[in-house]
């Protein structure tokens, strides 16, 4: 009867009111609607907000899982092209020998994981990997170097600037993760054409010291600040399964959602425990944990790309489908994610076909005023963007 009455009610407020009554009054926290339902409606109506409290994010995270999944999907359909999923490739261009003590990382020189230190890859090898990635459907090419920072690495840094320029000419988005940056280095990367810079916060500020001691939380935030000021897209997320509590997962999302601007990209990683690291005995993350993180991230940061990142290899196709439904719209393809296993190329292509997913084209955002110029013709994308800017002046 309630549903039938709602069909004749002229004062409905979409989408929540129709489920409960015909009252035109706004819903309050005293209603039967979950926090996920209430905050999803606000995110759809108001867009991104930066004044989140930990309590409000925790209430979303703790909503009944099916409700959280549904409302994450609802926000996703209203703020994103919900069937589009970006395919990215992450290449380790400088592997192993890192001086840091990140407890999850097999590339740390402090742990015996079998990962050997290697020099920076040559331009020819990097470009060949980028070409293969593009042919396989990737529109973003990410380069990672196992460094604490880029200070004192002028020769290698200049080489990477050259790699960035060359890959952009291929019509691909380019992302780097090279450790901490100085302000000038961020500006140089921007001039070279870097699309995004990845620098994860990993976990909450409170739990962080139990995972890493060689770089502070504020060091990470300072790098994000330099990246943002340089006009580069910010890519920052974290890892679950480190032994943290749920409140730490909420704390991570709270820090990201209360930055002056939300990250354009939020990777959600599930720990792949590697033998030889301090976290080698951590139990695998369950799919419901990933869904809670992804759906909550989608509701509190509705415009961000939420990336289903490391650990995806452990999830079946139906489980990944739930992640996409909850709000994820990016994956990493290729045999490895830096040094850890990743999903098979053919399996990913089959998944796209079965689920009806659409590969997302590259998106070039320029500070001069060209926003959302999507590359439809590969190498001509940047010329079109420049032409659009010129015509708008």
Automatic annotation (TrEMBL):
Pathway: Cofactor biosynthesis; biotin biosynthesis; biotin from 7,8-diaminononanoate: step 2/2. Its EC number is 2.8.1.6. [2Fe-2S] cluster binds at residues 142, 175, 235, 307. Binds 1 [2Fe-2S] cluster. The cluster is coordinated with 3 cysteines and 1 arginine. Its cofactor is [2Fe-2S] cluster; [4Fe-4S] cluster. InterPro entries: Aldolase_TIM (IPR013785), BATS_dom (IPR010722), Biotin_synth/BioAB (IPR002684), Biotin_synthase (IPR024177), Elp3/MiaA/NifB-like_rSAM (IPR006638), rSAM (IPR007197), rSAM_sf (IPR058240). Pfam families: BATS, Radical_SAM. NCBIfam families: bioB. This is biotin synthase. Keywords: 2Fe-2S, 4Fe-4S, Biotin biosynthesis, Iron, Iron-sulfur, Metal-binding, S-adenosyl-L-methionine, Transferase. Belongs to the radical SAM superfamily. Biotin synthase family. [4Fe-4S] cluster binds at residues 98, 102, 105. PANTHER family: BIOTIN SYNTHASE, BIOTIN SYNTHASE, MITOCHONDRIAL. GO terms for biological process: biotin biosynthetic process. SUPFAM superfamilies: Radical SAM enzymes (SSF102114). Residues 83-312 form the Radical SAM core domain. It comes from Amborella trichopoda.
């Amino acid at each position: 009867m309630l549903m039938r009455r709602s069909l004749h009610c002229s004062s409905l407020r979409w989408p929540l009111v129709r489920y409960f009554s015909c009252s035109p009054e706004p819903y309050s926290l005293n209603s039967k609607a979950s926090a996920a339902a209430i905050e999803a409606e606000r995110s759809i109506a108001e867009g991104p907000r930066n004044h989140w409290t930990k309590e409000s994010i925790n209430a979303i995270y703790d909503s009944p899982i099916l409700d959280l999944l549904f409302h994450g999907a609802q926000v996703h359909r209203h703020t994103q092209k919900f069937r589009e999923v970006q395919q990215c490739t992450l290449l380790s261009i400088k592997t192993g020998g890192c001086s840091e003590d990140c407890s999850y990382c097999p590339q740390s020189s402090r742990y015996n994981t079998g990962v050997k230190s290697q020099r920076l890859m040559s331009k020819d090898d990097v470009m060949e990997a980028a070409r293969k990635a593009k042919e396989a459907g990737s529109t973003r090419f990410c380069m990672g170097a196992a460094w604490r920072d880029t200070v004192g690495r002028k020769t290698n840094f200049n080489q990477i600037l050259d790699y960035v320029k060359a890959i952009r000419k291929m019509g691909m988005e380019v992302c780097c993760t090279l450790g901490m940056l100085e302000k000038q280095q961020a500006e140089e990367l921007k001039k070279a054409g870097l699309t995004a810079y990845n620098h994860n916060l990993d976990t909450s500020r409170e739990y962080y010291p139990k995972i890493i001691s060689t770089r502070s939380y504020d060091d990470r935030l300072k790098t994000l600040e330099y990246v943002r000021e340089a006009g580069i897209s910010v890519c920052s997320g974290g890892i679950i399964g480190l032994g943290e509590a749920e409140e730490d997962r909420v704390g991570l999302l709270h820090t990201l959602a209360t930055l002056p601007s939300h990250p354009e990209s939020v990777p959600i990683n599930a720990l792949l425990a590697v033998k030889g690291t301090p976290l080698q005995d951590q139990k695998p993350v369950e799919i419901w944990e990933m869904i809670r993180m992804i759906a909550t991230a989608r509701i509190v940061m509705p415009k961000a790309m939420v990336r289903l990142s490391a650990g995806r290899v452990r999830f079946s196709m139906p489980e990944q489908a739930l992640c996409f439904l909850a709000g994820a719209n990016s994956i990493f393809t290729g045999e490895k994610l830096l040094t850890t296993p990743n999903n098979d190329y053919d399996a990913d292509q089959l998944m796209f076909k079965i689920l009806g997913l659409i590969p997302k084209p590259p998106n070039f955002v320029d500070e001069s005023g060209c926003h959302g110029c999507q590359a439809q013709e590969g190498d001509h994308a940047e010329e079109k963007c420049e032409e659009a800017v010129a015509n708008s002046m």
